[in-house]
Amino acid sequence: MNGYASKKYSEIITFDDDVSGILRTPTCTGCDLDWSCVDTIISKLLFVRNEILKGGAGLAAPQIGFNYPVFIYTPDRTTENLRVVVNPSMIPLDQTCVDGSEACFSLPQQCVKLKRWKKIKVIYQNEKKAWLEDILEGFSAKVFQHEMDHLEGRLIIDHPNADVKKFNLLEEFEAHMKYVHLEDSKSYLAK
């Protein structure tokens, strides 16, 4: 099944094979970046997401071996709406949290139920170095926070409220993720 964290993919560092510790190492957000390196990372993120994973809601630089504050995400799981995020920051706009289930390419065949901020304000640079500011909610906010976790050296299993479910059978995982995707689709927004 395309775009699911259903197996170990080439090019993706997983929790089990992270010998360098990059998945648990915070990136330097707000730093002066080498944009030729950023461009290379963006190209590789897009290649891995589109050609190897064949989809997915998001992917962060540490997952492909770069300790840089860069990720890509889509507010509706489509390739057409992919966004490039560099040097991001975010703040919750109120104290409301929502429960949701998430999977991660760095944690194959696992799904984690946890709480995320419902509505966030984000500031980041795009691939053209332009600074953007936006208000995200629903699925967009969930994915943005998930990818921010990667830049902060945190995995979804590290959240204190994480309810981790591991699947031994691929069919069970894929059936569960179809349900998660259906639930997520109810909160797809234009942003």
Give the overall form: globular
- Structural class, judged by helices and strands? alpha+beta
Number of strands: 8
Largest sheet: 5 strands, antiparallel
Can you list the strand order of the major beta sheet?
Answer: 1-2-3-6-7
Return the CATH topology.
Answer: Peptide Deformylase
CATH class: Alpha Beta
Radius of gyration: 15 Å
Report mean pLDDT, rounded to a whole number: 94
Share of helix, binned: 25-40%
Supply the CATH superfamily name.
Answer: Peptide deformylase
Q: How much strand content do the residues show? A: 25-35%
Number of helices: 3
Please tell me the CATH architecture by its name: Alpha-Beta Complex
Unreliable spans: none
Distance between the termini: 26 Å
Q: H/E order of the elements?
A: HEEEEEEEHEH
Whole-number tally of structural domains: 1
